[in-house]
């Protein structure tokens, strides 16, 4: 067949052959046999150059004869998918427009052949039903077909077999697999063994914390901050003082390491005072509030109410030799303990008591030698100057812990050779060193200055036997020295002071003159135990002596203004701080005498035995600067405190500040005349004249009037 | 220093009318006591709280102020508490003996 022949030829020609067939099959009217020729001619001509050179053209007899121009005419053939038999102008009736309208598109489908087959899909319902009817024979048949299929496949081994088994059982679920190139291969990755691993950390340490944020807590924190800042500032300033700081740091470290109980010290002290307050509650109440109402009925007399009694176990058998109130802490006073007895000289003690605690001293310092005098610095209440029986002087600093004095004079540094009877602090000198004076039986009045760690002494004056400097007829005065037993400095005039001697004379001296006295008073017949300036009046001073008398002087007059005989050796006398006319004296018979010259010029307004045992001698007395109490020391080592009743504290009716200094003056002026008459009998020595006695006082005056 | 404090405490204990003394630290735990254990613990616990409250009151009113001591007087006796930054001292005294 020409068709098959041409299929062997190149694809072009093959396609040509097909295109030739198409016109025959499609029955296109346009295609005419003449085209055959043309096609042959043109197409063979194109491709036949190579193949068919020698072919000659054979014309069938009924072929059309066309001219060459007609032969070369090209006819275009279009292959369309239009169905030539399909009508082109089908019209339908449109009810909408009520007219016949041509259909826009005509179906071009031409069915050439239609055959209904009798094949059923294997999975369809009908097929299954048939299978079920037919049963086994169908299965076998299918197996055969499948095995055939399998042969085509590459042998897959067991898995294929398995697959076939599976396929037998689950035909419906058969996989669609490539017949030619399928290999069933499965692999499984290694399942890593699962291991559970946990980790547990230790929970952070917990502590429950609770706090309050009060106003004061905030305040405390701010205060600490401020202190830190201040410390930093100080450190920035005081750089060269590093060593000191280190030393201090060490000290503080030591303190914290020591026993805990040291911190309880302050609290323990408070508690002790509280306990004492409870025990001596009535005394404390009396001290504060009790005023003797019966004083209104006693015209001029007053009484002394005993309050606390201070005694220290270790101070037994020592007598009180000195008393001094502290100016800054009004409830603190110092007691010096020693012995007046020449034969019984031993140790001494310096004890400080507070009114708040009467059972135990606040401070106490044992000393090797008996103390005879002491004085507390008015500005620096922690400095105490002490004079000893062995002639030394010492200064104690209460702030320091150690029991020794800060400064002590030694035999090299000019200590006295005899007991020191009185010490007094002075104002700081120009170099701002503290200094104090002392007077002693060796006749020297010495000024001691605290320079760094030493006591530097300066002799101020030497007391000679005869008042003024005088040279004996031989030209060489025997260096006899008077023994000073007491002294006192004027309150207002700084350089002026009085010295009382053992001979009974009182010398008025000045710091400026070291060899000469300003004045001498023949005061007493025995040693002058105490001499004191009046607290208010600049001219008046008082002196007392063991010759049983107390004398009041005007320093411009060489004879005393008042004389009081107390019937016993007078140990001490003191002016009151609240009135210029009130003073108190203590005697060896255990009595306290309180005088108020404004009320009664001749006798005491109060004479009261204070100690229980009759043989105790009272040695010292001091008024408290603020409270209306006095302390009295005796030779048994006890200190008794007494409250002054209102009558003893009466103040002048006029204003205080202005009137007081004038009060005594007015009185003194009054008394001048009276006493001038009394002077002559006074000069006779020491004996208690009858009309001088306080008992006869008023009578004498009446007589003299 | 320590000996002095010991002495002071001893004096307080032997003072007239004093029934017992307790030293308590900052946490309210008694350190020293002259009473029996149960009483001590009771006193310490209760008084510690009371003192803290009292102190807080005083300071709240004026932060520059501070509590010095506390006295509780009852029919039978008087309890005195003196607080400090680190320690507290409690003394029970019968004042009217």
UniProtKB/TrEMBL annotation, chain A:
Localisation: Cytoplasm, Cytoskeleton, Cilium axoneme
Compositional bias of kind Polar residues: 10-22, 176-188
Family matches, as PROSITE patterns: WD_REPEATS_2, WD_REPEATS_REGION
Intervals holding WD repeats: 521-554
Coarse class of the protein's main subcellular location: cytoplasm
GO BP term, example: outer dynein arm assembly
Domain of life: Eukaryota
GO cellular component entries: microtubule; outer dynein arm
Comp. bias regions, Basic and acidic residues: 160-175, 679-688
Comp. bias regions, Acidic residues: 39-49
Annotated spans, Disordered: 1-56, 125-188, 679-705
Keywords assigned by UniProt, alphabetized: Cell projection, Cytoplasm, Cytoskeleton, Dynein, Microtubule, Motor protein, Repeat, WD repeat
Keyword Repeat (UniProt): yes
Subunit structure: Consists of at least two heavy chains and a number of intermediate and light chains. Interacts with BICD2. Interacts with CFAP45 and CFAP52. Interacts with CFAP53.
Described purpose of this protein according to its UniProt entry: Part of the dynein complex of respiratory cilia.
Family, per entry: Belongs to the dynein intermediate chain family.
Protein's name according to its UniProt entry: Dynein axonemal intermediate chain 1
Automatic annotation (TrEMBL), chain B:
Record's keyword terms, sorted: Cytoplasm, Cytoskeleton, Dynein, Microtubule, Motor protein, Transport
Subcellular location: Cytoplasm, Cytoskeleton
Entries under Gene3D superfamilies matching the protein: Dynein light chain 2a, cytoplasmic (3.30.450.30)
Pfam families: Robl_LC7
GO BP: any one term: microtubule-based movement
Claim: Magnesium is one of the keywords in the record: no
A GO term from the CC aspect: cytoplasmic dynein complex
Domain Roadblock/LAMTOR2: 5-93
Transferase found in the keyword field: no
InterPro entries for the chain: DYNLRB1/2 (IPR016561), Roadblock/LAMTOR2_dom (IPR004942)
Function comment: Acts as one of several non-catalytic accessory components of the cytoplasmic dynein 1 complex that are thought to be involved in linking dynein to cargos and to adapter proteins that regulate dynein function. Cytoplasmic dynein 1 acts as a motor for the intracellular retrograde motility of vesicles and organelles along microtubules.
Family that this chain belongs to: Belongs to the GAMAD family.
Protein name: Dynein light chain roadblock
Organism this protein belongs to: Esox lucius
């Amino acid at each position: 067949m020409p068709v098959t022949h041409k299929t062997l030829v190149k694809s072009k020609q093959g396609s040509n052959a097909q295109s030739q067939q198409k016109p025959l099959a499609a029955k296109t009217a346009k295609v005419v046999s003449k085209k055959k020729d043309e096609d042959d001619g043109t197409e063979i001509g194109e491709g036949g150059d190579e193949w068919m050179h020698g072919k000659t053209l054979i014309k069938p007899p009924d072929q059309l004869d066309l001219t060459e121009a007609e032969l070369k005419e090209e006819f275009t053939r279009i292959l369309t998918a239009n169905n030539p038999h399909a009508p082109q102008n089908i019209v339908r009736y449109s009810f909408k427009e009520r007219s016949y309208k041509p259909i826009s598109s005509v179906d071009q489908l031409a069915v050439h052949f239609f055959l209904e087959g009798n094949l059923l899909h294997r999975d369809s319902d009908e097929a299954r039903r048939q299978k079920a009817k037919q049963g086994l024979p169908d299965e076998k048949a299918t197996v055969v077909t499948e095995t055939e299929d399998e042969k085509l496949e590459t042998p897959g081994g067991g898995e294929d077999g398995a697959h076939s088994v599976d396929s037998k059982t689950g035909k419906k679920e058969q996989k669609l697999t490539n017949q030619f190139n399928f290999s069933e291969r499965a692999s499984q990755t290694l399942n890593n063994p699962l291991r559970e691993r946990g980790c547990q950390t230790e929970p952070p340490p917990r502590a429950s914390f609770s706090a309050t944020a009060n106003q004061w807590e905030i305040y405390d924190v701010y205060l600490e901050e401020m202190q830190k800042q201040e410390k930093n500032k100080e450190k920035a300033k005081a750089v060269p003082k590093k060593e000191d700081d280190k030393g201090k740091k060490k000290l503080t470290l030591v303190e914290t390491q020591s026993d805990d109980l040291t911190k309880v010290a302050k609290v323990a002290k408070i508690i002790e005072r509280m306990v004492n307050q409870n025990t001596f509650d009535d005394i404390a109440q009396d001290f504060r509030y009790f005023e003797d109402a019966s004083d209104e009925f006693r015209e001029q007399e007053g009484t002394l109410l005993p309050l606390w009694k201070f005694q220290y176990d270790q101070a037994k058998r020592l007598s009180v030799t000195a008393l001094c109130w502290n100016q800054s802490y009004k409830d603190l006073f110092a007691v010096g303990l020693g012995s007046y007895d020449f034969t019984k000289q031993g140790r001494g003690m310096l004890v400080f008591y507070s009114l708040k605690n009467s059972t135990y001293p606040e401070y106490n310092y044992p000393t090797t030698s008996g103390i005879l005098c002491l004085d507390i610095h008015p500005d620096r209440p922690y400095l105490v100057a002490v004079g000893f029986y062995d002639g030394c002087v010492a200064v104690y600093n209460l702030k320091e812990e150690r029991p020794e004095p800060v400064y002590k004079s030694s035999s090299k540094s000019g200590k006295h050779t005899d007991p020191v009877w009185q010490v007094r602090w002075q104002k700081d000198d120009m170099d701002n060193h503290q200094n104090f004076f002392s007077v002693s039986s060796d006749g020297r009045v010495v000024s001691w200055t605290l320079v760094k760690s030493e006591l530097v002494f300066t002799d101020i004056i030497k007391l000679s036997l005869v008042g003024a400097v005088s040279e004996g007829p031989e030209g060489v005065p025997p260096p006899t020295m008077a023994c000073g037993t007491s002294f006192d400095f004027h309150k207002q005039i700084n350089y002026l002071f009085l010295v009382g001697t053992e001979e009974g004379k009182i010398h008025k001296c000045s710091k400026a003159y070291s060899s000469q006295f300003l004045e001498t008073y023949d005061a007493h017949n025995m040693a002058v135990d105490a001499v004191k300036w009046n607290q208010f009046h600049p001219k008046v001073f008082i002196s007392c002596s063991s010759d049983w008398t107390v004398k009041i002087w005007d320093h411009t007059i060489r004879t005393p203004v008042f004389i009081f005989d107390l019937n016993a050796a007078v140990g001490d006398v003191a002016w009151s701080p609240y009135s210029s006319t009130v003073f108190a004296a203590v005697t060896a018979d255990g009595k306290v005498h309180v005088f108020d010259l404004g009320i009664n010029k001749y006798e005491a307004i109060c004479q009261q035995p204070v100690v229980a045992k009759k043989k105790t001698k009272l040695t010292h007395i001091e008024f408290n600067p603020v409270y209306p109490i006095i302390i009295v020391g005796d030779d048994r080592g006890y200190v008794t405190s007494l409250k002054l009743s209102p009558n003893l504290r009466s103040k002048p009716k006029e204003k205080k500040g202005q009137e007081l200094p004038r009060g005594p003056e007015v009185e003194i002026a009054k008394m001048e005349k009276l006493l001038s008459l009394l002077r002559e009998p006074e000069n006779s020595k020491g004996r208690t004249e009858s009309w001088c006695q306080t008992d006869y006082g008023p009578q004498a005056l009446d007589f003299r009037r | 220093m320590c000996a002095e404090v010991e002495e002071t405490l001893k004096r307080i204990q032997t003072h007239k009318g004093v029934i017992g003394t307790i030293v308590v630290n900052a946490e309210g735990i008694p350190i020293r006591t002259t009473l029996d254990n149960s009483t001590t613990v009771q006193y310490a616990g209760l008084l510690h709280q009371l003192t803290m409250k009292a102190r807080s009151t005083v300071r709240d009113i004026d932060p520059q102020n501070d509590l010095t001591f506390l006295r509780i007087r009852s029919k039978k006796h008087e309890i005195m508490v003196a607080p400090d930054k680190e320690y507290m001292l409690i003394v029970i005294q019968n004042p009217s003996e």
